[in-house]
Amino acid sequence: MQKVFVSGHNGMVGSALVRAFQKNDFGCDLILASRDQLDLLNQSSVSKFFEEEKPDVVINAAAKVGGIHANDTYPAEFIHQNLLINTNLIHSGWENGVKRFLNLGSSCIYPCASKQPIKEEYLLTGPLEKTNEAYALAKIAGLEMCRHYRNQYGVLFHSAMPTNLYGPGDNYHGENSHVLPAMIRRFHEAKGADAEEVMIWGTGKPRRELMHVDDLVQGVLFLLEQENPPDWVNLGTGIDHSIIEIAELVKRVIGYNGRIVHDFSRPDGMPVKRLDVSVVNALGWRARILLEDGVKSAYDDFLKGLQAGTARI
What is the mean pLDDT of residues 161-179? Predict the structure, then answer.
């Protein structure tokens, strides 16, 4: 029986992976470790863990993540911690005979002014978006480590580049969350307070592609079945929406009746970001969850989290 280690299993992506493995019988032994059991920022700790547990497959879902505000405010922490996480896991995996390593990157690795939709080949062809440059550089390093270890040592280390994700276990912090969970919290609180307006950052014109985390998990499981996957492949829906369209959708799902206003002092970030998913589509996979259905399920999960006291706010 194969032993599968999922790093970052308490995060949104990691917990979704764990749910999928526990729900379905994949004939594998799942290995998990909390932060007090394994310090991913410590090379010797990671190496010792791999030596003792001997995983056959590693899915790297661990990362320090945040929205525009967090990335722009704490760049040193974002580049430092994510470089350590990727370096420690990838190198220890190779040292300890991991047969397959699937590294999860981010769509922010691509240049700010990329042609749309963004193809895998556009990596490192131009400057990065300044507000999340530090995080992106760390994720690029992880992707390139997997590629070079695969080329030099013949190991099956590869990466997937997810688009913007949302879903159960998301971070709803008022300042450090991504756009969709931030909106869910704002509109929910505005409805409860009977507020006249909800503020969104920037002009509302930038366009974003959003994918439910359960779709990502299915993409990851699909890639693990491929005998010779690409070094890295985009995972997304291939559909984008403007920020104002997303706000109107969240407003409708939550049932808020006030108006939407803009804070033009806040940065927009990239004007458009939509992944070209033709490579993974050609392999036989595509996302299935429609945005409105996904937002409804995310809001239901948020309400359950508030009631249980487990929502990350």
Answer: 87
Task: Residue 73: name the closest of 210, 173, 181 by CA.
Answer: 173
Tell me the whole-structure pTM to 2 decimals: 0.93
Residue-range domains of the chain with CATH: 2-166+212-238+274-289 (3.40.50.720)
Q: Please confirm, yes or no, whether 135 is among the known catalytic residues.
A: yes
Q: What is the pLDDT of residues 68-99, one digit of tens each?
A: 677 778 899 999 999 999 999 999 999 999 99
* Active-site residue, selected from the candidate residues 135, 166, 256, 299: 135
pLDDT in the model for residue 112: 87
